[in-house]
Amino acid sequence: MSEPVTPATDLQLGLDTFGDVTVDPATGERLGHPEVIRGIVEQAVLAEEVDLDVFSIGEHHRDDFAVSAPDVVLAAIAARTERIGLGTAVTVLSSDDPVRVYERFATLDALSNGRAEITLGRGSFTESFPLFGFDLGDYERLFTEKLDLWAALQGEGSVTWDRGELRAPLRDVRVYPTTERGSIPTWIGVGGSPESVVRAARYGFPLMLAIIGGEPARFAPFADLYRRALDEFEIPARPIGVHSPGFVAESDDEARELLFPHFKANRDRIGAERGWGPATREQYDAEVDHGALFVGAPETVARKIADAVRALGIQRFDLKYSNGTMPHEQLLRSIELYGTQVAPRVREFLAAEPVRA
Questions:
Q1: Would you say 139 and 129 are in contact if contact means Cβ atoms under 8 Å apart?
Q2: Residue 183 CB-density burial (10 A; 0-12 exposed, 13-18 middle, 19+ buried)
Q3: Overall pTM > 0.90
Q4: I need a surface site. Which of 211, 246, 303, 325 has the fewest CB within 10 A?
């Protein structure tokens, strides 16, 4: 297997948000969902102004996240921007219908002049399953079948699909609107399952690794497995990306102190639902120092991103910049620093030392 090289100029740097409900910095009160959604549009506009490559929005169906329809918010962003790519982080395909998802994103692609992409995943939050009438007992089968149908829709020709047990077959149908590119660029989001890595390779979709805890380099075996699987399936090389949380401020100390209370509030709420203990400052600092939290001054964050790119041989890095209740104004400043200082510095690091997987 040949060693792919990632030139610094080919690396894409993007931003992800889950539409976390933020607070008013003056009162500490939670903002309403409508105000949070309007804030996301402003954040995306700034992301384009500071020359970032992609802006992606995740899907959730719970009160601490404001976005349940990312494609609608992305359409609003498309009307305010001209260049930046527009994607998801992630779309829960298991509890949706692949045909309807394709129609919506083909529409977004038209509105954005060909800037739409999608990341598909099973979802680590499961509220959408009972909400839309799906049995969690079918969690794995739902994703497997619907991803197979999604793959059949690529190319936008006539589709006959009868390989499912949970979804009705299709007989000689086409999906509209069609796109100018003939397909929707699709990534598969993976949290660390070897089976999911191989499945992404089998369909020839790019791989997006969600690294939200632990040292990024520990995911190198998954990146290697993906490349080896592509070779086995005789599929040409595909990009690998990483999605990780972080926050950029003027100094390392400022970034750590501003983020910690919001990180803890968010982690403790989710942890209470999943049986985790409360997050401690020691755990947080260890994750910043050696784990998957890309937090600090621009130089610190840039160096950590460059190290992750080198360790994994990736072609895309998306910073999950929204962090629980962190106020809108702090998010805007983080985006500004990420685009104007972190991104150029990452490329300088990588130009000095080319990346080999």
A1: yes
A2: middle
A3: yes
A4: 303
Residue 70 one-letter amino acid: P
pLDDT tens digits for 176-215? Answer: 999 999 999 999 999 979 999 999 999 999 999 999 999 9
Tokens 């970032």 belong to 52
The DSSP-derived string for 18-87 is --B--B-TTT-PBPPHHHHHHHHHHHHHHHHHTT-SEEEE----STTB--S-HHHHHHHHHHH-SSSEEE
Give the model's confidence band at 9: pLDDT under 50 very low, under 70 low, under 90 confident, else very high. Answer: low
- C-alpha closest to that of 55 among 78, 77, 85, 13: 85
Q: Is there a cis peptide before residue 177, judged by omega within 30 degrees of 0?
A: yes
The CA-atom distances, in angstroms, between 220 and each of 134, 172, 234, 269 are 34, 42, 21, 30
Crossing angle between the packed helical segments 298-312 and 220-232, to the nearest 10 degrees: 40
Q: Which residue segments constitute the domains of the chain, with CATH numbers given?
A: 5-356 (3.20.20.30)
Say which residues have a Cβ less than 8 Å from residue 283's Cβ, sequence separation at least 6: none
Residue 178's alpha-carbon distances to 102, 131, 153, 212, in angstroms, are 9, 30, 11, 35
Structure-token pair, residue 259: 């983020």
